[in-house]
Amino acid sequence: MARMNMIEAIRDAMDTAMGVDKRVVVFGEDVGYYGGVFRCTQGLQKKYGKSRVFDTPINESGIIGVAIGMAAYGLRPVAEIQFADYVYPGYDQIVSEAARLRHRSAGDFSAPLVVRMPCGGGIHGGQTHSQSPEALFTHVAGLKTVIPSNPSDAKGMLIAAIEDDDPVIYFEPKRLYNGPFDGHHDQPLTSWRNHPLGEVPDGHHRVALGEAALRSEGDDITLLVYGTLVHVALAAVRELGIAADVLDLRSLIPLDLEAIVRSVKKTGRCVIAHEATLTSGFGAELSALVQEHCFWHLEAPIERVTGWDTPYPHAQEWYYFPGPERLKKAIRHVLDATPAKQS
User: What are phi and psi of 311, to 5 degrees?
Assistant: First the structure.
């Protein structure tokens, strides 16, 4: 075991995968000599050479298109989109080609590629460096979409994604890159930069995609969260002094529906939180699933705590970000709800 922050864990995952499989290649804007804008690929080009770790033009459509061609040819590309906000020019390639390749070729070809993208706010990046577009990918059949919340999962899920035979969209919450993060939106950046966040297994460490993780356990309420909001939820539960199931989904597609249903049937109450906007966010899908599978066990309406339905507001970033206070208010509201009496 080694103590790492998320950046180091992601780099270790790529290093481990490249060391055992020569088909793994890493590329994107500034990922080679510079080591990536967040230094996730630092040192990899020097170790594996320019043919396996290389820089690309500023062309997201081209990056994704090249990755799909490489994957169909038999390689296992790991393509970095410098910020999730920049992926839209390559979205057509992901949806129309990568996601459909296995089906449209009747299994003759597949697209075993990973698209890595830093997502979310918290670094004063403004509206073009802070978006959380995960719901756009969960809607696309043929894609897998994952978001780790800690360094150990970041390494294990990235290795699993690289080894997967289908395309995986791998989101990296920027707020968690350097850790630790105590869940509070007003925590100064200098207090958590360059400090390790967790223990990460050495060597080949794999976390299966599609399995949620219970970060806190209790009978009072279920909190469905992922990425940065895992830490916000844990802070809210801690400050309220309640016993709650904090379920870190980790993988949005495939989704661990069994774990969700098991928890909500136990607690009877559910709050869903994510940083993306409310309307058509992934929380809407979660709410529908809980309603469909747990209706007769619910003691109160489901509530969602999310970002606003606006472009990411740079000047009001910390008000937009769903912090512990907003989450605590929703939790109290759900806990105080009284089931309707049956006639």
Answer: -60, 150
Q: What's the pTM value of the predicted model, to 2 decimals?
A: 0.94
Per annotation, catalytic residue among 103, 124, 129, 204: 129
Between strands 213-216 and 53-55, the pairing is unpaired
129 tagged catalytic = yes
- Model confidence pLDDT, tens digit, residues 143-193: 999 999 999 999 999 999 999 999 999 999 999 998 766 666 554 333 333
Peptide bond into 180 cis (omega under 30): yes
Query: Where are the extended beta strands (E) located within the chain?
Result: 2-4, 24-28, 53-55, 76-80, 114-119, 144-146, 168-173, 198-200, 213-216, 221-225, 244-248, 251-253, 270-277, 303-307
> 153 — phi, psi (to 5°)?
-70, -35
Q: Which CATH superfamily is domain 2-200 in?
A: Thiamin diphosphate (ThDP)-binding fold, Pyr/PP domains (3.40.50.970)
